[in-house]
Amino acid sequence: MNVEERMMKNQLIKVCGMRDAQNIREVAALGVNLIGLIFYPKSPRYVKSPNSLTPLPLSQGEGSDMLDKQYKTVGVFVNDMPQNIVTAVYNYHLSYIQLHGDESTVMIDNLRRTLVPDIVPQIKIIKAISVSCAEDIKQCETYEGHVDLFLFDTKCKGYGGSGQKYDWSVLDAYTGQTPFLLSGGIGPEDAERIHDFHHPRCIGIDLNSKFETAPGMKDVTKLQQFLLQLNKQ
Questions:
Q1: pLDDT tens-place string over residues 69-102
Q2: Structure pTM?
Q3: Could you please report the per-residue DSSP string of the chain?
């Protein structure tokens, strides 16, 4: 099942904060749809250069073909310069851009116009929204119509990857039309909690720190067991 089909079935699985090529291959083999690469220098999961992901397929040939067929890559940025984002999209063959800072709609619209249609005609833009209460959901109103997806993460001092949870019931306040990914400290014990969560715009989940053996390294066995539990629900 490809990314688009899973989006329609509300089954999109994103694993974020990855940077080791072999670890990415192993996680992708579990049927994960989106692999998140973090381009925020202050993150412990920061991807420094394309060479750090070698032999992750980033060029033409068999590897590139595998990249297209098995999963899509998401670049995560925090208040970065548009030209840096465009360069990363090109160098890493990104299919999604996730903006995790205070990016304006003007910047987002200009970024899309730069990439579409000449560089990446099908680029998707995700806007992360930090949430601790229903009032925070109002931020979405600004971005409605400018982004393709929201990602609701836990409000914290940093920019995501905190492993902290928030009360998902506050998302009942979201009545927009843009679909979203559920995030915020999701761990191996949360399969039933996810099964019990219902929102008409939720199309998938975002996993990160709770499945790590070290920053940027995911526990493949733990992820596999979690996904099996999730599919049994």
A1: 478 999 999 999 999 999 999 989 899 999 999 9
A2: 0.88
A3: --HHHHHHTT-EEEE-S---HHHHHHHHTTT--EEEEE--TTSTTB---GGGGTTS--SSSHHHHHHHHH-EEEEEESS--HHHHHHHHHHHT-SEEEE-S---HHHHHHHHHHHTTTT-TT-EEEEEEEESSGGGGGGHHHHTTT-SEEEEEE--SSSS-------GGGGGG---SS-EEE-SS--GGGHHHHHH---TTEEEEEE-GGGEEETTEE-HHHHHHHHHHHHH-
